[in-house]
Prior knowledge:
The chain has 385 residues and is of the alpha+beta class. 39% of the residues lie in helices and 17% in strands.
Amino acid sequence: MSGPNTNDDPGQHIAAQAGAEPATTVSQISALDPEQVQARVDEALAAIAAASTTAELKSVRITHTGDHSALALANRQIGSIPAAQRKAAGKLVGAARGRVRQALQERIGEVAAAELEATLVAETVDVTLPVADHPQGAMHPLTALIDMVSDVFTAMGWEIAEGPECESEWFNFDALNLGTDHPARALQDTLWVDPVSDGKCLRTATSPVQIHTLLAHGAPVRIISPGKVFRADEYDATHLPVFHQVEGLCVDKGISMAHLKGTLDHFAQSIFGDVTTRFRPHYFPFTEPSAEVDVECFVCHGASVGDPAHPCRTCRSEGWIEWGGCGIVNPRVLAACGVDTEVYSGFAFGMGLDRTVMVRNNASDLREFVEGDIRFSRSLLGEAR
Ligand code: DAH
């Protein structure tokens, strides 16, 4: 073989026969020419050393060791070389390919290690950074209302009081002037705790917190007490055996119905917007006089009354919404707690919180309050996602 690029070059024949892409860009070398072989080896080693990524190495591998590389083509010539020279050619080309392959393997190892190192550095997680604060749940609308009510009263200097959910009969009834023959003491309303003879019940209202507070702190006092109450009620769209109330108690010198009205107006406006309240005479054993308090409909403001063409869902076209009970604390209650009724008087009120949320946030089924579906909470809080 004298020259690399003759037409009857066996390497080219083989490539064409194999149906592979003709190695047009590869200049043919002679498998018998150490200089030509070395030149290709040098070229390959330089390309290997210059490659700095796995992708670059892949293309170097294809160019310098692939089926169409100069060395591979030279290797294929060997079979057609006269037997006397074949061994030398085989040795020359084999050694050359071996060197290239080895250099390639080494470089692949180096580059892969460098790339891994770079990835580890780039993807390092700083475990001391603050965690992304993805909201997972939603505040229950009752909790949100309790927070809101608490803010309204603490802003006026009132305190938040708590009492036990399991009460003795004396706190739940007697001290609140509910006599032994009062219908609220009947078994169908009150959930008594076994053994019934112990006189323990689940509190039927938040009113006993009035008693705990007066006994502990005396007068003057201004507290609200939001919390759970329990009654042997049905479980349906408008009743739950466990529901929530907020109790209010203000005892001081010279407290009158006017203070009660002013306080409830302010409370109602903080919760419902631009509304007034009205009192309807009523009876509660623990207040005298007593009233039921209605809040003006915050949707129609009374416009739907007597206007069948524009009914109001919120107040059922009555203009007013029943909200709770209230009154001037019965002196018998103050006396039961050792408060001097010659010096002090007070007012008290109690509202259903679940009912307040229902009216205010347009919820139609109380059962949704206890089912724990956060979509309900989110929709009522106005932050549906
Ligand atoms: N305890 C009453 C109830 O459960 C609500 C109530 C009415 C509370 C009048 C009061 C009040 O403090 O003065 O229906």
